[in-house]
Write a structure and sequence with these properties.
This protein is of the alpha/beta class. It folds into 2 domains: about 50 residues, Helicase, Ruva Protein, domain 3 (Orthogonal Bundle); about 140 residues, Dna Topoisomerase Vi A Subunit, Chain: A, domain 2. The protein is built from 9 helices and 7 strands. The strands form 2 sheets. The chain has a 5-stranded mixed sheet. A two-stranded antiparallel ribbon has the order 1-2. The longest helix has 17 residues. It is elongated, with a radius of gyration of 20 Å.
């Protein structure tokens, strides 16, 4: 792709680094920004810079937050005895949109995937086990995507905490096997949370 401007080329190259954005899409986005008033581009640049510099990770659940503890962990209305284990913030948002879950979350930051070089030590599993060890948690809900990586991660965590007095459940299979959680519709996802089943039962399926 030939560019008439080095500045344009640099901008396109940076935008194309984003997931799912090719050079042609990046060019279209950059040209769109050029057609907008300068202040609009400034707002975008400021928002991204502020996000990168000021965003925090919740010390308790590892969710993305503006403060040391996220709003969910700080809320007195949440049931602190139930923790929903998810892959990332997109899954938290998806489940929150169902308005069916009133417990807390634990964001792992990914799934175990040897092919991608991601092992248990690369995820927030140790802090989850410590929560269970404290005795304050009564139930863990495994809400990872129904993929090989998701099932492997669920099973690994299950083996780490099975000796403790905690109930383990998994979202009902209203979510199709192989589907990513964030793409499930809110009604199906909500029913899967409400109708969760014991995790040990899912191992026999």
């Amino acid at each position: 792709m030939d560019f008439s401007s080095k500045l344009l080329e640099n901008a396109v190259n940076e935008v194309s680094r984003l997931p799912g954005i090719g050079k042609r899409t990046a060019l279209r986005l950059v040209l769109h920004l050029l057609r907008q008033p300068k202040e609009h581009t400034g707002y975008l640049a400021t928002a991204l810079t502020t996000l990168r510099n000021d965003v925090k990770i919740c010390e308790k659940c590892h969710n993305i937050s503006d403060t040391v503890l996220c709003d969910i962990c700080q809320s007195p209305k949440r049931n602190t005895e139930i923790i929903c284990v998810v892959e990332d913030i997109r899954d938290v948002m998806a489940i929150e949109n169902t308005a069916q879950f009133k417990g807390l979350y634990h964001v792992l930051g990914g799934k175990i995937s040897p092919i991608e070089g991601i092992g248990p030590q690369n995820l927030h599993i140790d802090s989850l086990v410590k929560k269970v060890q404290s005795g304050e948690v009564k139930e863990l809900i495994f809400a990872l995507s129904s993929t090989i990586e998701g099932d492997t991660t669920n099973f690994y965590i299950y083996k780490q905490i099975e000796k403790y007095n905690v109930t383990t459940s998994t979202i009902a299979r209203g979510i199709s096997v192989g589907d990513e959680l964030e793409y499930a519709d809110e009604i199906t996802l909500g029913r899967s949370i409400v109708n969760r089943i014991p995790f040990s039962q899912s191992l026999k399926a």
